[in-house]
Design a protein that fits this description.
Number of helices: 18
Largest sheet: 2 strands, antiparallel
Oligomer: single chain
Structural class: mainly alpha
Distance between the termini: 23 Å
Order of helices and strands: HHHEEHHHHHHHHHHHHHHH
Strand order of the largest sheet: 1-2
């Protein structure tokens, strides 16, 4: 079986399917019946799969901003309609590459970023089979595969030029902008109060952190759309939209997102001035020294919070002040879990406890003096630091492999931007690079790489950087083709 993409009114099919699914998303939200999304899903996916393997890819980016979490009575949770779409894209990519296996043997795929990424996945597989809870870990391994296959490998296959990326970013731009405006309007009815922000972002986002993380990673791509646009009216509209999204980020009251946006602005100039990767390398020993200082002689105990004074704050200004004084509940709850994670690493430093198992085991390793009012963790959330969670779940080899992968990607962002001559390609590399930087920064105090609205942009952006490496190093005489 060989997939084709015959031009049989595919954009009409895609537009009709997209509008239908968006309409159902709103209806499902209004009537609180998320299963409404499943009614057309099988039929639409069958049509899309047969007519053009690219259409589910396009559809994903269109419906992603309005996807919702759904939990079945059995307790199984999924994201609708995005997770079924990811499975279909993974299946179609397998069929596509199996029908012409030589595609995967080309220099476009066999390059350093791909090798490092596959080492990361392979180590996840090794630790999954050695896991304390193999069933949980194997689910995480499968989830990682259906992020990487469609958004890294299939993206590498599909992206021909910046115009293709512009198309899929426009698909995401409109529903995300509408969702942002909708949330801001809802927030005005609560006088933009800090305590209401988690309520107003639902059902499209789990909480204010997810909402802000999506907005801030997409700002570089709105800038990309602005730079690519020729019409003055639309250029002004994209600028206005960026302002709306920044307003949304600010009123999300998410410190990591606000700080990462500021740092990304600085990284833009560091990349242009050839100083970015040197700055990254300089930060590594600083972080190592900080960790060493906290671990040596149990110095971390000196920062234990006062249980009675570590509270939830209902004002953003008070929250920032409390963060500085180590009296904010969300900050200190992170420390509570990080300390537990450190004890877990000490017990299983090489293989870890297994992917996805932190929540299952961390309560046995907590330190009472760091406990807060929310330490019972009713949301069953993770460690709130993606790098430390990899260390706990995959051991030191897993963290080292992931750090090498990240450093390689960060190095290539600067290198490929400086090597590229075509202005449109440079803009694309910069926007993808800033998206990666923002995601990595926000994941210093969150763990969102497996979130359906964030992970795809991470691997898509890496695919853009990998494509630029291929164009600049393997195919120097090829311009905008593959």
């Amino acid at each position: 079986m060989k997939l084709t993409h015959q031009p049989i009114d595919k954009y009409q099919v895609f537009t009709a399917a997209g509008i239908f699914v968006l309409l159902l998303s709103f209806l499902a939200s209004y009537f609180e019946q998320v299963l409404l999304l499943a009614i057309p899903l099988v039929l639409i996916m069958g049509i899309l799969f047969i007519s053009d393997y690219r259409l589910p890819y396009y559809l994903y980016f269109l419906v992603m901003p309005l996807s919702v979490e759904y939990y079945f009575p059995s307790g199984f949770g999924t994201d609708l309609p995005t997770e079924p779409l990811m499975l279909i894209m993974t299946a179609s990519a397998f069929v596509l590459f199996l029908s012409d296996g030589m595609k995967l043997m080309s220099a476009k795929y066999l390059q350093p970023i791909t090798y490092a990424l596959m080492c990361h996945v392979c180590w996840i597989g090794v630790t999954a089979f050695a896991s304390e809870s193999p069933f949980i870990s194997l689910k995480i391994l499968l989830a990682k595969i259906w992020y990487i296959i469609p958004f890294y490998f299939l993206s590498l296959h599909l992206i021909k030029n910046p115009a293709f990326v512009k198309k899929i970013m426009i698909f995401t731009f409109w529903p995300l902008l509408l969702a942002t405006i909708y949330i801001i309007i809802r927030h005005t009815s609560y006088s933009f109060s800090f305590e209401s922000v988690n309520h107003v972002v639902r059902p499209f986002f789990r909480n204010h952190v997810s909402y802000a993380s999506v907005l801030v990673l997409f700002v570089p791509f709105v800038w990309f759309l602005y730079k690519q646009e020729q019409r003055k009216t639309m250029k002004y509209f994209y600028l206005l939209s960026m302002i709306v999204m920044v307003v949304g980020i600010y009123f999300s009251y998410t410190r990591a997102a606000i700080l990462s946006l500021i740092l990304a602005f600085g990284c833009y100039y560091l990349i242009k001035w050839r100083l970015f990767f040197k700055s990254v390398l300089l930060s590594v020993p600083i972080l190592i020294f900080l960790v060493y200082f906290l671990v040596k002689d149990n110095n971390y105990v000196r920062f234990a919070p006062n249980f009675e004074r570590t509270v939830t704050h209902n004002d953003f200004g008070n929250l920032l002040d409390a963060t500085y004084k180590l009296e904010d509940i969300s900050t200190m709850e992170r420390v509570y879990r990080w300390v537990a994670g450190a004890h877990m690493v000490a017990e299983k430093p090489y293989m870890g406890f297994g992917p996805g198992t932190f929540y299952t085991y961390y309560q046995n390793y907590t330190v009472t003096m760091f406990e807060t009012y929310v330490s019972d963790n009713p949301e069953k959330s993770g460690m709130h630091n993606n790098f430390l969670m990899i260390l706990v779940e995959q051991g030191f080899p897993g963290l080292v492999i992931f750090l090498i992968f990240c450093l390689l990607v960060l190095y290539q962002i600067q290198e490929q931007y400086l090597k590229t001559k075509d202005e449109n390609e440079k803009i694309l590399i910069m926007s993808a690079g800033l998206c990666i930087i923002i995601i990595l920064l926000t994941n210093l105090i969150n763990d969102t790489l497996e979130v359906d609205k964030i992970g795809p942009f991470f691997f898509l952006s890496i695919a853009i950087i990998a494509r630029s490496y291929w164009l600049n190093n393997t195919a120097p005489n090829i311009s905008k083709i593959n």
